[in-house]
């Protein structure tokens, strides 16, 4: 059975990175058991890509009438979006071999079918934090491991910075529990609407958003982030 998440992820064309002709490289794709995509990792190589796309990070909520039932039952699904920069200084982050577990496996495609005859895909688990990074789209196991380590080092550096920032806020007596909060809703029943809960920005044509027209939402998000930064 296709879940709502897999329908959206597989039926939607690429987003703003495609509309603006940003170079995109797919790093890893994990397929759901039935059909569709469970998760995907890709790299966007363009000026200001992180500053622009990072406002899309967070929890996205989809509400619609289920296409799988017969009673017009409303269905709600969630998708998490994570945006991290490629940081040169992250290469200086030391990751002891004893802190990671490396698993190798064959790259898989839709429906679980194998797309490679060798164990070239790599999954690295950072044991102290539980962070897991998988890569399978490079040609060799060595390349996939190197790519996975770069992402792991970046995530560890960002985690350290987040912990330092949280500690400073705690010492200052200002704590905002916003991590993981829902930031945007997509309503595909009744009044068709996409609403950003941080900025209040709304789009009355969800199809255009799914076609990659996120410029208005992203611009509103950047303005919201600047105001938030100025207030802090």
Walk me through the structure.
β1 and β2 (37-44) form a beta hairpin. This protein is an alpha+beta fold and 232 residues long. The protein has helices at 4-11, 16-19, 49-53, 141-172, 206-210, 215-231, and strands spanning 24-31, 37-44, 58-65, 74-81, 100-105, 121-126, 131-135, 182-187, 193-196, 202-203. It folds into two domains: 2-89 and 170-231, Alpha-Beta Plaits; 100-163, Double Stranded RNA Binding Domain (2-Layer Sandwich). It has a five-stranded mixed beta sheet, with no helix packed on it.
| Distance separating the two termini | 46 Å
CATH hierarchy: architecture of the largest domain: 2-Layer Sandwich
Mean pLDDT value: 79
CATH class of the largest domain: Alpha Beta
Largest sheet, strands/sense/barrel: 5 strands, mixed
Shape category = globular
Arrangement of strands in the largest sheet:
4-3-8-9-10
Give the helix level as a range of percent: 25-40%
Number of domains: 2
**Fraction in beta strands:** 25-35%
CATH topology group of the largest domain: Alpha-Beta Plaits
Order of SSEs: HHEEHEEEEEHEEEHH
Structural class label: alpha+beta
Which runs of at least 5 residues are low in confidence (pLDDT < 50)?
1-13, 172-180
Radius of gyration: 19 Å
Count of helical regions: 6
Instruction: Give the strand tally.
Output: 10
């Amino acid at each position: 059975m296709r879940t709502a998440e897999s329908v959206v992820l597989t039926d939607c064309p690429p987003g703003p990175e495609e509309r603006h002709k940003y170079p995109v490289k797919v790093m890893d794709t994990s397929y759901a058991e039935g059909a569709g995509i469970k998760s995907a990792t890709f790299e966007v190589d363009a000026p200001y890509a992180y500053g622009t796309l990072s406002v899309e990070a967070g929890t996205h909520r989809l509400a619609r009438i289920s296409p799988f039932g017969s009673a017009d039952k409303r269905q709600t699904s969630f998708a998490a979006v994570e945006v991290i920069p490629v940081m040169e200084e992250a290469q200086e982050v030391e990751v002891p071999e004893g802190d990671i577990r490396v698993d190798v496996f064959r790259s898989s495609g839709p429906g679980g079918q194998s797309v490679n005859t060798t164990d070239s895909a790599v999954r690295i688990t950072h044991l102290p934090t539980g962070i897991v990074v998988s890569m399978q789209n490079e040609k060799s196991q060595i390349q996939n491991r190197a790519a996975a380590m770069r992402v792991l080092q970046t995530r560890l550096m960002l985690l350290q910075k987040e912990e330092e920032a949280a500690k400073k806020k705690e010492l200052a007596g200002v704590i905002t529990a916003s991590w993981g909060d829902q930031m945007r809703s997509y309503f595909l029943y009744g009044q068709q609407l996409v609403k950003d809960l941080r900025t209040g920005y709304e789009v009355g044509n969800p199809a255009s958003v799914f076609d990659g027209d996120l410029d208005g939402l992203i611009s509103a998000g950047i303005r919201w982030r600047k105001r938030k930064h100025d207030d802090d």
